[in-house]
Fold each of these.
Amino acid sequence: MQHTGVTIRDVARAAGVSVSTVSRVLNDKEDVAPETAAAVRRVIEELGYASSLAARGLRSRTTHVVGVIVQDMWHPFISTLIKGINEVVAAHSYDLLAYASARRNVEALAQWEQQQVARLNGTIADGIIVVTPHAATYRTAFPIVAVDPHQADTEFPAVISTNRQGVLEAMNYLLGLGHRRIGFITGRMDLQSAVRRYDGYRSALQEAGVALDPALVVEGDYSRETARGAALRLLTQPHPPTAIMASSDDTAFGVYDAAAELGMRIPEDLSVIGFDNIAASASVNPPLTTVDQFIERMGALAAEIVLKLIQGQPCESRVHKVPTQLVIRQSCRAIESVHS
Amino acid sequence: MQHTGVTIRDVARAAGVSVSTVSRVLNDKEDVAPETAAAVRRVIEELGYASSLAARGLRSRTTHVVGVIVQDMWHPFISTLIKGINEVVAAHSYDLLAYASARRNVEALAQWEQQQVARLNGTIADGIIVVTPHAATYRTAFPIVAVDPHQADTEFPAVISTNRQGVLEAMNYLLGLGHRRIGFITGRMDLQSAVRRYDGYRSALQEAGVALDPALVVEGDYSRETARGAALRLLTQPHPPTAIMASSDDTAFGVYDAAAELGMRIPEDLSVIGFDNIAASASVNPPLTTVDQFIERMGALAAEIVLKLIQGQPCESRVHKVPTQLVIRQSCRAIESVHS
DNA sequence: AACGATACCGGCAACGATACCGAAAACCTA
DNA sequence: TAGGTTTTCGGTATCGTTGCCGGTATCGTT
């Protein structure tokens, strides 16, 4: 007995039955006498036994576990997403397992994901949700759902929000308030979501007949710190913007930081709009006007799809869009005509 | 071939070698010719193969994975903790696996945890960190570390913060500002941390020679919504407190909500102190004075201990305390003498 | 040329659990 | 009571992987 814990054999021996019988009790099979089952259950409780996830999955190919592959469990977007996933998954009495790998070499992210998928594939989880995947295909016929994938068209179902449309709405709001010089801080441009948000920015300007000034677009990476630097560059140039459209709430917070450093007030001196509507955006000062992308609902939807796939039901459509909605708070202000 | 993905056998067949050889390549063993290894590696990459975590763990009893058992991955405390854990774990090139179970019956939490531990035990993870465990002992000789356990003395190493001391400091700050009627909203009193924070409240009053008024203590559960109700009760009574010590930042936010409803300004009409120093506490309005318990460091410490245990090193002490620190921001104000 | 020492690799068993098959026991039915 | 049916249970193979053992090929040495 090398196993550090209690195995099914220990239970069988203690209960005076065979391993098979214990297994039957564990899985609520028919063929077992009530009193035998009761005795086995008592022993299981006494010994504090639980079947090994690994061994069970290896043999029976079904684990009642949904896996989530992420690069970082801590980021608010991901953690909110997991909340949405967890609720649906728990309601179906599936367990949730989030996996983050240390061995991550940036130049081969797609391969890294493939590895993670293969590692959990079939033996640990019944289905997998991959968050912001780089790859568009995995070598497996396995329930997989992507959330916010890099690639536009994936082989597996994907859940995305209407990124372009969301920014478009926000921009129209700013334009309606009279802003014409609107700065833009991009997200990580290797992400599909960032590209589409930038698309929304450009489309809105075009529709409004405002020429795009390259000096007003700065590249960010969704992080607060990078955004701070980007905002400083935007705001210290000769002809600074009167409003900044940020590609994420974190990015918007970076703008807040920069404004504070420059002694600018929001919204009096500068209007700001974020994207995501993470929890913090309601409680910052001033409360941030932002585009809600219903992250929890995205997670819930992804979970529903993966559970459907697990149960063998086909997935009707490949791309599932979750609509966005502009949440107006207090970080924007109408601009008075500069010449009046 | 029932496996939905690629197995070691597929790799062996494709590379024209035996399964054993592939295994040797995978584990960087000595006895394999460089060109053979290269060929195998090429096939592995072509097929997108990765060894199954389950099978590998089952056979070799070492997985290079640290497991974290939580009830909810979403809560800021837990998610921050995971961030701290992840950094240390990744630095040692271990993978991180967070597990949340759906089958949770509240009356038998300790047994539920035992199940989770047994489930991951040995075959999936090399060591386990249990967050806010209910049980004080598990039936296993396995690297286990607890963070913020319910029980005061556990059989396994535990990481806690100096909860009592933290509240004591905060209270002394409030008392120093002249406050005498200080309300207290407790945490979930079944948690060790909540009890110790309440201890700190009582000790501070006693040391200062202020009698404890039971009307100023209301039970909460660390949640914002419950705290809102609790704060409303505190603030609408005949002789309301001039300051509220909240058992967590979320609790303090609930106090903010209640104050807003009642038209009270913070800190002009009411001083508030929180506990945790989660990210949001710096960006609320006004920025919250709170007790930083260095959640990330707690996670990092837990990870270090569990890695040490995995490597067979003994753990010198059972209880590891992470010191707290009062972070003074703008939610408190000195009280003018009511009679002047 | 013959031998021993390596280097390399394949076969087999085992990890803990479940699926399947068939045997033993218990229960009917006539 | 004999025969048949059902209930209950044990034995065995197997999942994908690695550890161990031993076999073969290659090479250097005298």
Amino acid sequence: MPRPKSGTALRSRKASGQRVSLKSLAEHLGLSQAAVSLVINRSPGAKSIPLRTQELIRQAARELNYRPNHLARSLRQQRSYTIGVVVPEISEGYAALVMSGIEDHLLQEGYFYFVVSHRHRDELIEEYPLLLQQRAVEGLIAVDTAITGAAQIPLVAVSGHREVPGVTNIVLDHARAATLAMEHLTKLGHRQIAFIKGQEFSSDTAIRWESVRHAAQALGVKINDRQVGQLEGESSSPVLGYQVTKKLIASGEAFTALFAFNDISAIGAIQALREAGRQIPRDVSVVGFDDIQSAAFQNPALTTVRQPLREMGMLAAETLLRRIAAPPEADYPKEIVVQPELICRASTGAAPR
Amino acid sequence: MPRPKSGTALRSRKASGQRVSLKSLAEHLGLSQAAVSLVINRSPGAKSIPLRTQELIRQAARELNYRPNHLARSLRQQRSYTIGVVVPEISEGYAALVMSGIEDHLLQEGYFYFVVSHRHRDELIEEYPLLLQQRAVEGLIAVDTAITGAAQIPLVAVSGHREVPGVTNIVLDHARAATLAMEHLTKLGHRQIAFIKGQEFSSDTAIRWESVRHAAQALGVKINDRQVGQLEGESSSPVLGYQVTKKLIASGEAFTALFAFNDISAIGAIQALREAGRQIPRDVSVVGFDDIQSAAFQNPALTTVRQPLREMGMLAAETLLRRIAAPPEADYPKEIVVQPELICRASTGAAPR
DNA sequence: AAAGCATACTAAACCGATTTATTGGCTGTG
DNA sequence: CACAGCCAATAAATCGGTTTAGTATGCTTT
């Protein structure tokens, strides 16, 4: 049974800013590094070490405030307990909500994560996954970003829509989302509906527009091309929605409702409509998409199709960790579909007669 | 002069998912790891290696797509090029803007960062800095968070207000901020002004309130305690501002202007005032704080005291990296003050007579 | 008394880099 | 011809852990 050396070493070490290493801890205990490591990690190999000694080791570790160097451990174990998150931009409502869901699950499981934002620059979208892999992340989550190269590590995409080998896509049921919004508007009597499509680079743009066209057709609503605008520019400000709505108004085509690509653009659209003298929802009803935090606190409060963004983030993290734990050749889900919800607030109303 | 072995090894390695290590690269080249490392890193030690060989090494590295393992490098060099960012929560507003500024500067300098959010739970505020240090971060940025223990690594606090040894505080000039807002309101003729204070846990609450009281006194405005409310609860939703404003209204004390703790609560306040039949700004003027993205797109657009949050994030990152680069005993700034700006929009107007 | 077995550990390899000290060959010089 | 000095590298230590294989000791069993 080992006995710790005099308390002096302990105190001096505590006083000095020196970090305690396994080596110094083992020396202080008069044991080998191996023994200490086994006990600290509660490895199966520690079962031959008497409880008395184990207790001594743990106590010394506590007193010396020993904290294993995570880098060294990761290197040896080939496990970093770290993942990478790639987002277009951090300051935006969308990404922030998804990230907060991701974080929730990850930290709970002892994982940390790196965030990088590419701001839609292609070379960064290429480079960041490589840089992250160089930093030994065990998996990637891409938010609203089309990762190009097949990754050698598990990858979960939130709102990605490409079928890439090795990727799990977490996607909204866009057909249902479009139907919810369009049914809501048609039930209110709207027939002349304007639309704002997303930017070309947004991974949701194509599928969402496709879904809207289907839903419109199913409901017998004709889409007038001159009542369809598209967001342009990389900023995530309502200004984009404002500008495109100005154009829609200027085109002179009458519409009684507008279905925007997202809440941000819906907010800009409302501003533009109001400046043109249209009251919301008396003259024009507006439906947003996403249900970001501030949607509920617009004036009028925004009717919107809610994406469960936080849940999607949690789901992404959960799925990723499951894939990391599974053997590399194991099967994995190609797609996970989540359901939208229509949140009826005050920006929609009966169509004017 | 070494000559690479046959191309077969190259192709097979490229085909296999095996990551290329320094060892395998050196073997392939018929050189030692040391030589390859020196060349790849352009170390001074590489100057004795002929350019011809250097070129061969670099070319092989490119072809085999060699990427040094960052963990191993960090371990050896005792530098991780990683910092930790501690925020209360990853939300749309405050923290996201600061983070985006931090990111801007960090990634540019080759640093990555971990984010953790503590949601105001004390044990997490205690634990996360330790966990981050275990992961060998070289410095910490704390956003709106009072880090308790003195850290062994450089620490920059955004809106921290404690004088802790080892900490650089990035703070707003609160005196000026309060003066800007109060002068604006008094010039518009307001005398009966209500206030919403921040939650107890927010590190800005105390100093901002102190500044407001000073500014009020200097301008000859009396503060009526029954016209002062305080945010309660941990959520970052406008609901908190809504609730406290309801109470203020219920108390029956008349006021013609309201200065909220932040934009989020101002938005809730406007909702509450409107429900009580007050028009903004005809009956009541409202001033927010922060200038978050959606402030400009409220209806009416919010007059607010702008904090340069993105710039504060960038400044924090810049300061931190400078401190990391400096020798440990070097002097460092205890406080860096940034200036607010009054953004006049449509939620304030002349006081009703 | 030899073999078998559990107990209580330890030595040493290993993860993948960086970095210091050293080596062997060659050329030029006193 | 011995010696210094340069060139072109290399061997080996190191970072701080984890993990495998092994060893010394004592006790029981045949």
